[in-house]
Amino acid sequence: MAGLSPINRALARIPKRAEKSENPHLHETFVDSGVADILDVVDHQVLNGRRGTGKTHAFAYLASERRALGDIAIVLDLRTVGSPDGLLDPSAASPQERAGRLLIDLLGQLREAILDAVLEDETLVNDGDFVAKVDHLLTVLTDVRVTGEVETSQQRQSTQKEHSGLKFNAKVSSSPTVDLSAEAGAEDQKVSSRSETRRGTEQVALNFSDIARALRDVAKVLTTRRIWIFLDEWSSVPRDLQPYLGEFLLRCVMPLQKFTVKIAAIEQQSNFMAVVAQERIGLELGADLGATVSLDDYMVYEGNEDVAREFFRGLIFKHLSASDAPEAFGDLTVRNTSDVIRLGFTDTRAFDELVRAAEGVPRDFLHIVSRAATRAGSQPISVDIVREAAKYWYQSDKVEALESREQARALLTWLIDKVIREKRARAFLVREDDMRDPLLVTLFDARVLHVVRRGYSAQDRPGERFDVWTIDYGAYVDLVRTKYAPQGLFQLEDDTYVSGVDVPTQDLRAIRRAILDLDSFRQSIETF
Q1: C-alpha distances in angstroms, 185 versus 161, 179, 188, 189, 443?
Q2: Is the dihedral angle over the CA atoms 254, 259, 260, 264 positive or is it negative?
Q3: Could you read off the pLDDT of 320-358 as tens digits, one per residue?
Q4: In angstroms, how far is CA 379 from the centroid of its own chain?
Q5: What's the DSSP call for residue 17?
Q6: Closest alpha carbon to 302 in 469, 55, 474, 504
Q7: Domain definitions of the chain by residue range
Q8: What residue spans carry the region label Disordered (predicted)?
């Protein structure tokens, strides 16, 4: 990268994804902003966060911490569990059958991970029968039954044999005699048979009691204090199968004293509970699981400026410290986070603009700073360069991902016109009932819309609850220096603006003007 200053060269080289970082560095690159303290407890928990917020980093960090204390920590990526044909195609089999295949593969990976941990550290085992008990876990996963029609047939065969003839005997002696007799007879032979033919398909037959017993037996022979299971990418499991996976965890794993389960999920794409045959199955948040942790609470700039600023300053410094920083910096010395900003940015305002542009997503932060460092060349990164980099990342990655989603792109354009151009704001309110609308979920997943606050209410809308959503920084950066530039998050009745969302509810006097009306949007596209 010719022409880059040492600090910009180092910033441009930062890995963007956790799986591309070397494992020894994950501990260093995960910044403890209080998240680790909340997660590092034996309670079963869900860690929520959008794509790129660092859930994988967090689990890798916690797993390394638990291993250092002598526990077994297993990180399972649910994207690698099962096969596409067996899980993703609803027409291929019933949800129960697809869930069974998922669980068999998951338990198989769990068994292999426990076995690998023991092979690496033989002090974890105090029982010579450990391998046999681990293998027993495999046997309870191989029970197969055939379901379908049973055809039974009976066959009966009867045969009869007849014979007749004349018998002649002559005997020569002093008194010759002749015997003449007739003989006839019959022989009956009966044969019967019964056959049974099963016509159907093989299905896995998992017995939760047997699985729980096998897992308990494995845990008993381990000297380790606890087995930590980190289930990453929960939302990659098909929504209709997630409750079955939750029910399995609830019945087989969570009741076991030595097991702790942590789940990383995207809230809008998670389905922990369902009703099947008039019975509730799955996990109940807050009851079966401990407190849910949201990474957005620590990283979103709006309303958390100081916390977000410190998080991203620490993130960038530790990434540089864990990479080839000494080589990249040349003669420069970077001892702390202040040095990074002093050497890499024109001022603290430029760094704050970078944090704001990331919208609380560390992966986007790293991509934007990498682009900005490349554009800055030998100069420090300025506010204008941050805005250009954010615009480029928004257009090349986020909007590009919506290329095949015409209605979702139409909704985004409609929101930009209604919220930014007309109201000169960048936030709007969404009713809780609309949170899982497919179009909103699509835009949320593409990271062009962001949830910054939850649970708002208005005095003139009693009984209704709203969440505060914002439009991505990259969508309105073009309008910053125009008459359409957003003045804040909300526009009030008197044409003043609220610059942040951390304000008393009663100050949102004109909240009805900022409520998303999906019906109006759908009517607008029907007119074309």
Answers
A1: 9, 19, 10, 14, 93
A2: negative
A3: 776 554 554 555 677 888 888 998 999 999 999 999 999
A4: 40
A5: S
A6: 469
A7: 6-10+297-398, 44-143+208-290, 146-202, 400-526
A8: 149-198
